[in-house]
Structure prediction request, 414 residues.
Amino acid sequence: MNLPLFIAKRIYHEDGHQQEVSRPAIRIATAGVAIGLAVMTVTVAVVLGFKHTIRDKVVGFGSHIRIENFMASQATFPIPIAPSDSLKQALNKLPGISHQANYTMVQGILKTDSDFLGLAFKGLGKDYDVTFLQQHLVEGSLPNFGKEQGYPLLISRLTANQLQLKCGDRITAYFIGNNDVRVRRFTVKGIYDTNMVHFDEALCFTNYDIPQKLNGWADDQCSGIELCVTDFDQIEETAKEVADLIGRQSDKYDETMVSETIQEAHPNIFSWLSLLDVNVWIILVLMVCVAGFTMISGMLIIILERTQMIGTMKALGARNSTVRKTFLWFATFILLRGMLVGNILALTLIVLQQQMGFIRLDPSSYYVETAPMELDFLAFAALNVATLAVSVLVLLAPSLLVAHIHPARSMRYE
Prediction:
């Protein structure tokens, strides 16, 4: 039989065992553990949800990996590539690639009777994955890209508000070429809103062949290829395989192709997201310190109040290690109660936020309207294990106090 565990259970469950001094100390220690664990769990959930939400929005506009002309980023006008069928087949065979689609781009100006706005028109084909756009559609319907006749247009809410447009409106667009200006009449089919101002104010979407014809490109030419990866954590390895593949090929017009990951295309956004990890570690350390200090204070008070019991145990032959283990087990029970309360508080808040979204944010600053929370069960379990382990470890020091308690004097202690 585990004697320290048995004694700890008896004094923990014994009615009236908590005296006037130890009762508030135990409550404070329990509350400190509960609040600390709840704050840590919610913090991790918010950061994970925020990072993944923003990442998914950026990826939705530009996919995980993009293949384009080497000179495209340096030129002031669109430069195409002509990916061959063999290149597409080779990309499909890469284990890290889940989907690929060509896209086209052209710069134009939308003009109404009272205002105008310069935008990038992105052409999408029938093989393009429009799940992201469908998720953020707020008005109208999504154009049937690549199949719909005419000049359909999907614009952002920012664009619609600035130009005072609504679904069904027709608007004139101007495209400036080398020697002429081309005019096209588009019909607004839908309006989307992602709260990513950097993208919403600069992009609109239309059929794949419209930018292609406006740029005067051949049918096999496009602005680039967008690739989706199966595992974002392995994006660097997949990007290296893509770079090795296209590094050995050129298109039929001898144009040099280059690949770029979404992190390389938008380094500022991903660097900002990486900084959030530092904030998380600071909060985790602070909360662990709060829980540890409250437990140490409670442990010392409990030991001092149980001085007579410690003396009696020693007088009956108990070793210092046995007494120490008894109080460590007792503190563990307090820890487990606090962790249970903390987990209930955190999970309740996370579920309520996911369902109701009552914590609101400024989308112009945070790119989301409500605080996103994502519960990762591996991180959740790791937090609980780490909290329990660290708290028990910090209690080893105050438990050494029992070695300095003398049986004869302690039994007279009041």
In short: Residues 22-62 form the longest helix (41 residues). The radius of gyration is 32 Å. The mean pLDDT is 86.
